[in-house]
Amino acid sequence: MVRIPFIACLLLTAGSMVSRSDSPDFTAPPHRYHERTPTDRFTRLKAVIEADLPALDRANEITFVRSLLRRLEIPVSSQLLVFSTTSLQLSLISPANPRAIFFNEDTSVGYIPGGRIEVVSIDPELGAIFYIFDLPRDTAPIRMERSGRCMNCHAGEDTGFFPGLVLKSVLPGPGGGSLDSFRHDLPGHAIPFADRFGGWHVTGAGSFSNHWGNLTGRLESGNLIRISNPPGELFSFSRYPAATSDFVAHCVHEQQIGFLNRAIAAGYRTRSNLFTDSAGLTAEHRLELEQDADTLVRYLMFSEEAPFPTDALEPDSGFRREFRMNRREVAGRSLKDFNLRTRLFQHRCSYMIYSPVFAALPDSLRSAVLHRLRAALRSESPATDLAHLPEDERRILREILTATLPEFASGR
């Protein structure tokens, strides 16, 4: 059977999200996405960066990107390389000229050799905010523009019609255009590894190869032929800030996007319902809040995490070290401790519970999440969807959260 080519566009991240016909309008009150001044970290830094104080290193593209990442506290070791043409700058992207993505918990930077810089920053209430700007030449000023075109993909069906992040897995042809696509469910750690990484380079995976990374393809007589595309074979790593597209960084990126999209959508729905129900939530909207709280708790606790590869991995130590630098810990334990043998993290509650997006959830929704979380970690017989956590692990999670998350400890 001949497969029909699949083409997508996005700004920074190359799943899909189940859409809701009743999704509230994020441009209308009380949200007013386009009218409100964002409070995300990048927007707050934008004027300082445009003023170039302190000066960014303009010696060449690589030094500029490195200095920008330092300013934004994004580790260079988070670099992920994507060679499918899923971006506003698709004409510049190919297996011979991949796009690099760098990320931390609230900001991502996209860089293509010879192209423009792309930034997506997460506002705690508004969700994803998009910017794009030219690499400055000589003493030319830095001028960042907020991008509206990104909303075609980043606030469409793939994100449930809320401003969020898109994560694709496709099989590109020789020029980067997509021949097939995979993983049409919500992005996040539940996605099977056999459906991940299409159109991306993956390093550090050791002998694990049951994924779509490092491949291109072609159609022959209606059949899709896979072609090996090893990292660094069609391009030089010297054109990028790092020589990696690390397996563990990919996994962290996936689970982080999964949380952000779910939390952004739940926040929009709850704020819309609270605005509509000025005298108190209706029974229908209360049920919706309870469902969103259940969804967030299950995701935070990795209740549907895909089976982790048992093959010997060889991940980059630089990313693992830098990722853990801002951890909150108690007795040497933190939510950023890796396992990498049977699962991604040793202690299965996502560190994104510390994020500004979680803190900015409406009080009623955040309280419902924390109430369920406390009950699940105290119970000797937790609900079925949290029964994957043995008592010892629940005890450790209680200790970590009690010491590092005041709202959890206070019982509010």
Question: Could you explain the architecture of this structure?
Answer:
The chain has about 400 residues and is of the alpha+beta class. The protein has helices spanning about 40-50, 60-70, 150-155, 245-275, 285-300, 315-325, 355-360, 365-380, 390-405, 405-410; strands at about 80, 100-105, 105-110, 115-125, 125-135, 145, 170, 180, 215-220, 225-230, 330, 335. It folds into two domains: about 40-240, no CATH class; about 245-410, no CATH class. The strands form four sheets. A six-stranded antiparallel β-sheet has the order 1-2-3-4-5-6, with helices on both faces. Strands 7-8 form a two-stranded antiparallel ribbon. It is globular and about 55 Å long. The model is unreliable at about 1-20 (pLDDT under 50).
Unreliable runs, pLDDT <50, ≥5 residues?
1-21
**Overall strand count:** 12
> Secondary-structure element sequence?
HHEEEEEEHEEEEHHHEEHHHH
Which value, in Å, is the CA radius of gyration?
21 Å
Biggest sheet descriptor: 6 strands, antiparallel
Tell me which oligomeric state these chains represent.
single chain
Number of helical stretches of at least 4 residues: 10
Instruction: Summarize the amount of helix as a percent range.
Output: 25-40%
- Backbone structural class: alpha+beta
Q: How many domains make up the coordinates?
A: 2
Strand content: 5-15%
The overall pLDDT, averaged over residues, is: 90
Distance between the termini: 57 Å
Instruction: Name the strands of the widest sheet in spatial order.
Output: 1-2-3-4-5-6
Mass-distribution shape: globular
